[in-house]
Amino acid sequence: MSSLFTRMMDESRHDLYDIRTSAPGPAGSLPLTHELLMEAPSGDLFGLSQNVGMGWLPNQLHGKQVLILSTQGGIRNEDGTPIALGYHTGHWEVGLLAKAAAEEIQRRGGVPFAGYVSDPCDGRSQGTTGMFDSLPYRNDAAIVFRRLIRSLPTRRAVLGVATCDKGLPAMMIALAAMHDLPCIVIPGGVTLPPSHGEDAGKVQTIGARYANREITLQEAADAGCRACATPGGGCQFLGTAATAQVVAEALGMALPHSALAPSGQPIWEEMARQSAASVMELEAKGIRMRDIVTDASIHNAMAVHAAFGGSTNLLLHIPAIAHAAGCAVPTVNDWARINRSVPRLVSVLPNGPEYHSTVRAFLAGGVPEVMLQLRQLGVLDESVMTAAGETLGRVLDWWKTSDRRALLRERLREADGVDPNSVIMSPEESKRRGLTSTITFVSGNIAPEGSVMKSTAIDPSVVGADGVYRHTGRAKVFTTEREAIRALKTGGIEAGDVLALIGRGPSGTGMEETYQLTSALKYLPFGKYVSLITDARFSGVSTGACIGHIGPEALAGGPIGKLLDGDLIEIVIDLNRLEGSVNFVGQGEERFTAAEGEAILAARGPHPDLASDPALPEDTRLWAALQSVSGGTWRGCVYDTERIITALAAGKKALGW
Description:
The chain is α/β, with parallel strands linked by helices. It has 26 helices and 15 strands.
């Protein structure tokens, strides 16, 4: 035997073999009744045995059972030091929220249960094959959350604790589907920025900046060490994690002023106790998810998304939440209408014009402050019910004169010397400062089914005085993100180019997120003169002239999959009218109209290197097929059971099965 095996199976530990074969069991008796024994399912009765077996006191078994689900990851010591790392800070501390909520439920005579479905980190998987599982994970996690809820038939309410890009949307989808249960989302909050250093968005560009001699090796190492200045919470910018928290609150699924709280701090932990108390109150009042997530609350969430300048990834998540809730699924026209009517009011990373962190947005008043400003525009439905058990109108009346609002806004002035009105602006101030609306939907002969751009994030210096961004440039076509980032690092992309990344939609990569590219373009000196077009998607912290979600995707026959190096691409984005086009208008020295370009692309074959990524998991291939027949990206990449069953039945009939 090897020495390792001998040490591992050390036979000198005789205490290991002193094994008990029975135990006396818990003291006392189950509080059973004649009616329970005659009428209750055996599962309910055995559940009581399980509960006391885990240590719950028999005389406390009849309290209302509340299930706490979370995305907790990693293993922490009591002092917070790691035993085993989590995937990201966003799930590292959420166990503290679950614990605080459970203690509050117990204090109120309830019986808390807890379950976990951890989540990946989009930042950690950028540029790797891990990204191929990112968006598909959301559907899988929502399924498991729903199964866990249904697997505890005696639960009377559900709390969902989640923070980040896919775990929080999955939680919202799962809870929105619980039409007959009271549920509340507890957002996991945000991490703090370093006192001196780079935020977690900018730090993800150290490789590209080092390769282009923008920073030294030591500068990269120092910045990378300090970017996550506190151990818990989502990133410090208004990316997908922060936007999802904002949307949860705007939907009414989370308590007022709970999104973006600083992780680990007393106000953050108290929010968990308040949520536990509130969900028990909702249960007592008979307020259920069908009363909270409605067509009107979804409209409100879309309006708040526009006012914050939120991540384009929520165009995938809000429709999925609506689908789960049984509400009308927002269309592109709905998004365009709301973005034309709702101004952007929030100045945060990455949009600017002042790059405030998310904790400053929280101190400035967060979601209720933004909704208070939107109230005067008449774009909100104030009759909707919220997780507080009060209508939105009553919540906003409270917020306007609350001590919480006054004290936190004053704290922002004291701590950082920042005027809260420079973080969350009035509509009049926003207009005076020139803040543009959030999203433009772009079509053209390259994107006949449409595409999306976070147009508010285009560098103002490359936008014309008339508010129109115009770029005509030669395509540099890549079929893998690795090739594209190598070109950025080694001089293969220059000012004036149009970087076309193709075949990276649902069928190619699971619709990977390409922040590795968009972040590099932001922080390289020539980057603002480069446009990016792709059938993949972008991180919520992406900035610049980046057009994503192009449909049809290349591998579904979309014309983007027929582009070649040197093709002339014309991009026109009107930031005032929120209209745009992306067209193939030339090859070689030849120039032609968009209609002529459409005909040329139609006659072309696909790019010779176009193919699904060889590392694409079978799980993701299945996800891509199921979401495609369910309506694809514009319906939120959901699983529409009826449409899938119809498609399978038609396929079986056609195949003669």
